Amino acid sequence: MNKFLENLFLPPQASTHAKAVDDVFIFVTWVNIVFFLIVTFAAVYFSIKYKRRHANERTPHVTHNLKLELFWSIVPLFIVMIIFFWGFQSYMVGRVAPNDSFEVQATAKKWLWAFEYPDGTRSINELHVPFGRPVRVVLSSEDVLHAFFLKDFRVKSDVLPNRYTEVWFEATKPGEYVLQCTEYCGKDHSKMRGKVFVDSKADYERFIADGPADWKTMPPAELGKMTYEQAGCVSCHSIDGTKGQGPSWKGIYGQTHQFVDGSSQVVDENYIRQSIENPQGKILKGFEGIMPTYQGLLREKQINGVIAYIKSLK
Amino acid sequence: MSSQVITADHEAHAHGHDPNLQHHFAEMEQQFECSKIGMWLFLATEVLLFGGLFVGYGLMQGQHSEAFKSAHHHLDWRLGALNTIVLLISSFTMVMAVWSAQTSNQKALVRNLALTIGCACTFMVVKFFEYSHKYHEGLLPGAFYSYTGPHQNAEFVFFSFYFMMTGLHGIHVTAGIVVLTYLLIQARKGAYNSSYFTPIDLTGLYWHLVDLIWIYLFPLFYLIS
Amino acid sequence: MANATTTTTQTRIGTAPPPHLNYLTENNTLKAWLTTVDHKRLGLMYLGAVMSFFFIAGALALLLRLELLTPKQDFMDSATYNKVFTLHGAIMVFLFIIPSVPAALGNFVLPLMLGAKDVAFPRLNLASFYVYCTGAVMALAAIILGGVDTGWTFYTPYSTTTDGPVGLMAMAVFVLGFSSIFTGINFVATVHKLRAPGMGWFQLPLFVWGIYATALIQVLATPVLGITAVLMVMERAFHIGIFDARLGGDPVLFQHFFWFYSHPAVYIMILPGMAIISEIIPAFSKKTMFGYRAIAFSSVSIAFIGFLVWGHHMFTSGQSDLASAIFAFLTYLVAIPSGIKIWNWLATMYQGSIDMRTPMLYAMSFLILFAIGGLTGLYLGAISVDIHLHDTYFVVAHFHYVMMGGTVIAFIGGIHYWWPKMFGKMYNERLASIACWIVFIGFNVTFLNQFMMGSQGMPRRYWTYLPEFQKYHIGSTIGSWILGFGLVMAAGVLLASLRKKEYDAGDNPWGSRTMEWETISPPITHNFEGQPVLRHGPYDFRVEPTPATVAGGRHSG
Fold first, then answer.
1. What is the ipTM of this complex?
2. Which of A289, C329, C376, C522 is the most exposed place for a label (fewest CB within 10 A)?
3. Does residue B31 belong to any structural domain of this protein?
């Protein structure tokens, strides 16, 4: 019977925490059913049994009954106290993420979820986590209040601007789960949905290598622009010709660059790749060699994207 | 059965009771006590209205205690103290006004009401000077804040609250002046005496609350250190 | 002015007395109505106003449910949808349900029940009505100027940064708050000072206890709503920084301010509804109320504890665990007095002589629907479960069961109960009870499956949704049509009765023992001839009902 109620009312339990929550839910459901039946039965039964038969019926003048009133005050009090303690305890037990959790940063903004992984990778609206470890999601908003709700894991937290909140969960099986925003945030609040992929080891490694799904369909130059902004290139390299701490990218593809050691090279695919992976190798005249290396920090797709993007900046 | 008509009786005034007694009350004393209950309830709402602002101030002060301490230096505590004394005097003259009405002393009533109004106006004049000074310094609420100096970001929260709370208080003082002026006009016509002085009494209660709120505002804004 | 001629009128139940000069017909010019200080006329004007807003906001709900038939756009885009649900909520809460029972029925009935000629401050009563009208006009202006899309809860920072006439709507709420405060002040003073001789606190009808407890909340909680609205407007207009995290403020502070009023507000909504049920059940069981003192004290304790639980709306907001625990604990405490009322009502019916006419039918609906609403609150107080259910349709279902299945059902039942007193004319009993059944069925079809939808993970305030939820939405929308039809039918049946020429209802068609039934229907402008005196308890069915008659002899001023 409990299983029937769980299936009727609740999504499948997909986290280690879900059962604790559902157990309280089912208990309260039984309390609800019992009391509802008592009240409804009494109301209907009394209406029928004591229906007025003639106009001048006399009724007993009963004003109170102390024992009865105490009984039906104390017994419900006892029951609701059980619910309170159980609800509070099951809440506290899931409060603190374990020390070895896989940590992800989630930023909410109207109307999307941006995730950042420990290795610096970023994805939009899809969160990949490896199966078999607890996951801690650190939340903050760039604009208004949002809320991060994973119904299958029974976790939810408001997401605030200028402050961090968090949720954590450990999935009980790999799969795809839905993420919904549950704090009204404007026009596309109901479209602010995402997917959480609890990946097997192999799938997770493939994600790390290839990047998020939308990268597959994104034109390389667009991926390159996104990388330019997210990976930090934008802080030193302009795209409009202005000299920054690094050379502008405007129109450089095909130009010949002069280096401080006197050598020179035409800017082509190889040159760009080398500059990303070993920037200290060739330092451009007029600049200092302060660019950090991006070896291992950018995926193949991203490097190809940056190359395509630079090509497009005529 | 012959038709029977029940007419409402509007001839209460022809019978000998106080013209100030309203129809639905049996006696003047009942009416007076009832009015007082109503006034106390209204004052409770005022306490809660300002209470919300006091709570907000307290929370912000807790978060920005340094900025709040430095911000209060822009306020002249002597003007604040002057205003406090002025309002305390006005509360005293208000009490005297109630007593004058209770003892049917029309001349004293008029005099005390006028003194109360005078104090209230003095309070508003001092406030005007304080506000102009802030205006010149750019210490204005929220978006109009143009002060540049140390702590300027958090000081502006202090000034947001300063203007909201003293502004709301000032609105209440002004409303009080309006009501007191009306009472003064009526008092000169002899409307109040020992059997009917309810409006004076109720306004007195209101006025004491306005004074009391200032007593809390003064240290909170002018004296924190 | 004509000479006063006061005479005795003995009316037998069921006869149609000739039309007498009463509060409706005496001095019947438009100007007289617009400047009236008669609590009965004001009650009727409030009744007309709140019912109009009820149907307007109800129509908005029907539109919402229509759009929700499919997950795609059917006829409203998401921006419009967001405005429609905001307005549905704001109009229902501020223009309908908060004033409803107190300002409409409370105004009409309270002085009559106390044996008084009017409320304590009749001119303040008139002011309260005009303040309400002003707030309503401001809200309508905000709607016409493009509407507001913040949700009725106006959470910051969305409400302080979004476009639209949010400030105007907030000021409308501020103004409407004063209307509520004035009503509250009036009722507290009235109950203290205008009771009939012999009517001590424990001889008061329980409707009075309920209205009194409500009035206390109105006086103490509403100013906080006022200051919250002012702060929100200041934040929007002048960026004072209190709710803006970038300026050193805290958006969650807004939630604390808002719910400090809005939780007690829900008790402003339900206590008068319960108060009506406490009148109907003894009258229609012809049996004294069981546990009178328990019910009286439960009203006051609900009012008191209700001020301490606001944080249970904020379990996911980032507030501390300690705060959440305290709020959850107190929330469960407030369930107990509500439960006590239900047991006492059932115990009153036990061995009663039950008359199942329309008011009692609504009372039975109330018992069942409010039981569901209250019981489902038990889920929401359990913090771990609330984390899952917060901001889902489960909450939407819960509050519709208590507010609509509770207060609105009780309100409609109360209107049917006091209708013969207000107008002297009886509605068609058969059609009225059919409408009640349709409303009951329609309500459940609309809202019952929303519990499941919510716990399965369907968020609220959603214009589009995952396909798996569509079957619930379709059922709910069909229910909304049944419910809407039933409500329109109920209103139609009532209004149709006004077309009768004669006063056929009699002075006391239900045989009640409270004092409002001891005067003729409709009452004369001054309610009673002279000052009535308490002769028996409000639910003492051992004695015969006191007929409407002159009390105390000739009116002597």
1. 0.91
2. A289
3. no
Higher pLDDT, C134 or C11: C134
125-164 in chain B: CB under 8 A from chain C: 141-144, 153-154, 156-157, 160-161, 164
DSSP output for C327-393: HHHHHHHHHHHHHHHHHHHHHHHTT--B--SHHHHHHHHHHHHHHHHHHHHHHHHSHHHHHHHTTBH
The domain in which residue B187 lies consists of: 52-222
pLDDT tens profile A40-79 = 999 999 999 999 999 888 999 999 999 999 999 999 999 9
> Which residues fall within 8 angstroms of residue A12, CB to CB, at 6 or more apart?
A152
Instruction: Write down the architecture of domain C34-518 according to CATH.
Output: Up-down Bundle (1.20)
Nearest chain C CA: its distance from A218 CA (Å): 26
Which of B17, B25, B45 to probe by mutation at the C interface, max C CB count within 10 Å? Answer: B45
What chain A residue is nearest to C314 in terms of C-alpha separation? A158
Q: State the CATH number of the domain containing residue B74.
A: 1.20.120.80
First-to-last C-alpha distance (Å) of chain B: 85
Give the pLDDT band of residue A144 (cuts 50, 70, 90). very high
Put simply, whether B219 touches C (Cβ < 8 Å) is: no
Higher pLDDT, C294 or A119: C294
Q: Is residue B46 part of a domain?
A: no
Helices (H), chain A: 2-9, 18-49, 66-93, 201-210, 214-217, 220-230, 269-277, 300-312
> Which residues in A lie closer than 8 A to residue C463 (C-beta atoms)?
189-190
- Does the distance separating the beta carbons of B49 and C248 come in below 8 Å? no
B133 assigned to some structural domain: yes
Residue B5 belongs to some domain of the structure: no
Please give the model's pTM, rounded to 2 decimal places.
Answer: 0.88
Beta-bridge mates of residue C392: C459
Return the structure tokens found at C380.
Answer: 């929401």
C interface mutation test: which of B1, B3, B5 has the most C CBs within 10 A?
B5
Q: Tell me whether B19 touches chain C (CB under 8 Å).
A: no
In this prediction, what percent of chain A has a pLDDT beyond 90? Answer: 69
Residues of chain B with pLDDT under 70: 1-16, 141-154, 225
- Closest CA in chain A for residue C452: A9
Determine the average pLDDT of the residues in C474-497.
97
